[in-house]
Amino acid sequence: MEKDCENEVYVANGEIRVLIIARILSCFVIFGLLLGVIPMPVSIILVSLMWFVNFSVGGSIIFERNCLVCLHVDKPQKMITIFSEMLLSAFIWGYFAYWLNFWLLLVLSLLAILTVAWTNLDHNMKYVDLYGRGINVAVELANGRFINLALVPMFIIFGSVFGVSLKLTYIIIVAVMLHYIHNRILVKATRP
Questions:
Q1: Rounded to an integer, what distance in angstroms lies between the CA atom of residue 83 and that of residue 190?
Q2: For 32-65, what is each residue's pLDDT tens digit?
Q3: How many domains does the structure of the chain reveal?
Q4: What's the pLDDT tens digit per position in 76-133?
């Protein structure tokens, strides 16, 4: 088991390094798109593609797998991984806020929170079931993902020129959704 854990950590560390590099490169690409070199429809497709690749295909799933398999991860690696995800998220939401109106951003952000967070929970719970441990770690990781997915778009959107009433509506809806999903996580994670 210990050797399997070492192999998992070795593979995951390599994947995490590649993931961080891909995120940083994506931020540079998005910054270039914001300069207006590429037409808006094409650039939105490119940004959405980078979002899909970074969050759905890879994302922090490999980092979380490392945490759940060995229940340990180096703090510097943890901080860099989380920071790179927040940086990419900020660039992506900043780009969308530049082009889209409030209601499109609202729908898009809620879909992102629901889809990615719920998929993340299912993935983590598979490792909990497989190894029979790590429930608290899975809950902590899922809660961290909620915070990242919710707070980053909130800060980006609130920094734009939307009215106070729309901002309050947005934060109330997101808070209710997060409270509901958080309760669902606790029920599922602590099931017998």
A1: 29
A2: 766 766 676 777 777 677 666 666 544 555 555 5
A3: 1
A4: 666 666 666 777 777 777 777 777 777 777 777 777 766 666 666 666 666 666 666 5
Amino acid at 23: R
- pTM score, two decimals? 0.56
Tell me the two tokens of residue 16: 């995490």
Residues of the domain holding 177:
2-189
Q: Is 163 left (phi over 0), alpha (psi -120 to 50) or beta?
A: beta
